[in-house]
Amino acid sequence: MRRRMNDLDWMRRGGEVCRSGTxxxxxxxxxxxxxxxxxxxxxxxxxxxxxxEIISRAExxxxxxxxxxxxxxxxxSGWWMDEILVHTAEAVxxxxxxxxxxxxxxxxxxxxVGSMPIGGILKAExxxxxxxxxxxxxxxxxxxxxxxxxxxVENGWLKGISVRAQVLEWxxxxxxxxxxDGRFTGPVRLASKWEPIEISIEPTPADxxxxxxxxxxxxxxxxxxxxxxxxxxxxxxxxxPVGQGMPAAPAAAPAxxxxxxxxxxxxxxxxxxxxxxxxxxxxxxxRSAVPAGxxxxxxxxxxxxxxxxxxxxxxxxxxxxxxxxARGLSVNEVNEEILRRLGSGSxxxxxxVQVVADETDKxxxxxxxxxxxxxxxxxxxxxxxxRDFRGxxxxxxxxxxxxxxxxxxxxxxxxxxxxxxxLSPDSAFSxxxxxxxxxxxxxxYHAAPTTFERWTSKGSNTDFKPRKIFQISEAGELDxxxxxxxxxxxxxxxxxxxxxxxxxxxxxxxxxQALINDDLDLLxxxxxxxxxxxxxxxxxxxxxxxxxxxxxADGNALFSAAHGNLGTGAKPSVDSYQEAxxxxxxxxxxxxxxxxxxxxxxxxxxxxxxxxxxxxxxxxANPDGANSGVFNPFEGMMTLVQDANIQAASGVxxxxxxxxxxMCGTIEVCYLNGVxxxxxxxxxxxxxxxxxxxxxxxxxxxxxxxxxxxKNPGPSSK
Length: 718
Hints:
about 25% helix
């Protein structure tokens, strides 16, 4: 039989995390202290009680509103191990709270207040930088009890907030096991999918990282330290780390640097105050006591920075500085751990060299893919952490980058100052923007609806000087050599075409206004539009050669009787196809001595004639035959290419045949150094606040030879 829990059991096992199936006690609950909750089987429903801060106050329609934090990633004691609510875009579902969520007092179980709402939730947001959820609430001013609770919150008497949430998916990490993103280390139970249901003002706080009612003075300290979000500072109190970027609740008196851990037995709550003399030259934060005030925050920031630097110096060890910081290790202790790992598992000197992506590279990749996902572009394999950046505004990203670069007070910077700081060489912001534009350009280039690349060849020039493209004639057959005979020299011919590159480009800028307006179009859609236009320009240049029928070096038009590649005007049929095949395969080499035997591989036509050609190429029977049993010799023989750039001449639509470019070059599209995609160049503006970008495309289109092309003037389009 399950024994009844006394108040002490409750505080030790579940006082801060309560499961559903709870009942109002009002003095009648089974072993539940203070009119709280009665735990039962784990069905995924939890309640978290947390103190914290009023982030802001405002007036809306004559009513006072409060923006507050109601959840974080601070661990809370569970039944078997610590439990953490994961705060990522994939983990948290705020839709239920936004639509049906209410504001209660003590989850509606207080006998004096009752279960009716004391206010409402105007909006709820996920802060992916600080790993917490915030909500804007309003109290019911027409309800006396609600007004009394609001007054106590204003005066600082009520400092807790509790969120009741449904956990849809738990992820359990064993001892020393790390989560997929490397942010958590077991033993811990992660709520990897969860949805908040309601928020309550709570008189009994447990999580020291979020909530309401710390008072204006401490709120100002928090505002001054918003820049810590990039350093991921964790101050430990009562055995539970504070959420990322959030300082701990102030203690009664500042503790000295280098506070040692309490000697309390493992698994027991840490003592409320215990300190020792600081270690020389090093700082640490104890599990048992938390320094208060700006000096303590500064000391903790220094400790965290030094630990991060130490770990970054040994990428081969795969160290997690966040774990060391959360455990309250001093810098000396981290050094000892590094030496231990170097001595036990390091590779010998002179071994293989391993290239490891640093944190800046990982940040740039994650932020870039996050912006692309937010813009609605498809990213095949988003970088780790990309979805955490998906909900960030551009200004928030700039603040994060500036903070990571070590600049203080980024959150409160004016837009002009923030822009200058973000575009400095120390910040990753400009690199993230450039990477995002480059990726969006690459996606757009390959998605552009063009057809020229299917049947033309690709070339490369190293500069913008005219380049001769030579074609050498085929070698003659070997001659029979009589006894004591003499070998004859073979005479080969060559011909050439001239390839010249030209530069095409556009310029645009990312300005202060774009940052404020959160204009993602400047990073995605506008560059993508330019790149798509560049590729369509190449497509038009290729087909303009077919339409123009230019005069070649021998003085004859590209398609002419002299070249033997101009057919008799007719609608698409087996007969016209036969004429084209015969004309192309009987073309002779440069010396005019041998047949090339090159069949057509492509049929190029206007979309207006697509159906006629498709019938010929896909029908087993001859469409023009007297009966259905007549064999179609051209079924599946060629690839059909349709392009709207095929133009009619005097109301007549022509169609063309082209050889495989690997067998006979016809038209070559040449790029500078073989770089097919347009290139992006950037410059931080001096005469304006922002970044100038220019998209340039170096390419040329050259007609090589007529022998692999054939034209049928075609019938009237009427």
